Amino acid sequence: MAVVNSEPVTNYEVRSRLARAEAQIAKQGGAMPARDLLAREVLERIILEKVQLQQARDSGIKVDDFAVSQAELGVARQNDMTVDQLYTRLARDGMGKERFRDELRNQLLQQRLREREVEARVKVTDLDVDQFLREEQKGTDVASMEINLGHVLVLVPENATPAQVAERQARAQRAADKVRAGEDFAAVAREFSDAAEGQRAGGLLGLRPADRYPELFVNSTLGLPVGSIVGPVRSPAGFHVLKVVERVTAGMPTTVVQNHARHILLRTGPQLSEGAAATRLADYRRRVLAGQADFAALAREHSQDASSKEGGDLGWANPGRYVPEFEQALETLKPGDISEPVASRFGVHLIQLLERREAKLNQREQRDMARSAVREKKLDEAYATWAQELRGRAYVEYRDPPQ
After folding, report:
1. Contact, 195 vs 151, CB < 8 A?
2. Domains of the chain with bracketed CATH
3. What is the structure's pLDDT at 200?
4. Overall pTM surpassing 0.85 (yes/no)
């Protein structure tokens, strides 16, 4: 079928993924595209995944079973199920446990690669923050607005021929036509989009400040009513179809819910796997809950974080201060609760929520919130550029067309 940096893409891989894509489209009641076009789209997605997974392996990134199990539990919770119930449903859809866990592992590898490669590119200066706050104070439409966009991305390879560009544009146009004809946007996104949120969230990017969207998205939808469809519009990454799902006015918050937590961090690597770290932290948790050990004392003795000197105390924190895995764990806790071990790119954490309060932001904290908003916007833009560069550097040889 194709060779990606000397790694083959087999006909079996494409046929298997194609069958799943067709089953998903049929289940959602969407219009079935021509099989050869869908097969080419599936092939391109596999190529994009292989390029990222190869880069992750070359970078020494690893994901062990503990992190996969944590992600597995997260998927089950998102669907209001137990893990056993999740696998019962997946089995009905022809997805076995081993294959599902392999896919979760690959998703985590790609996520960690993006964190390593993209976040290092993003720098937020004081001038960036000043500009953001000036726009906020002016009350301009963009600065005072939050929007939720639906997004379909049809990627265009960096060195695409005119014929390939035309084919990609035609595919994006078909997606736009389907949505304008009244088809469900989520179903169209799952059928056509190359973006991760197309498969995971039906193309919804989520309600966020307009400044956290790429300028192309904001400028293309500015002033349009909710429900409007835009595109295809071209960017360096490819062709985009956008839907204005929700729009609300929103300025910088003056009050937020703050969390006061402490943690024990065990850093993972060749000498300590995530699984081994999780086992050790689970024992600490058991001992604290049984009254046999003190959390702060364990943090001082074992935590590999600067907060260890303070018994793991992280102080009061505004939303967005921590990595997503840490934030998500905090949200599930009540004051006094201790989490199960939580893996992040820093290692494995044991988290205790001490207090929660609503607080008014001072000027420094407002600047910190503004810095986070600017960083999120820059991360989105940097990811699009990075993904395009990575695909462009790959050697891809197309052989037989998908069968």
Report:
1. yes
2. 141-252 (3.10.50.40), 255-360 (3.10.50.40)
3. 62
4. no
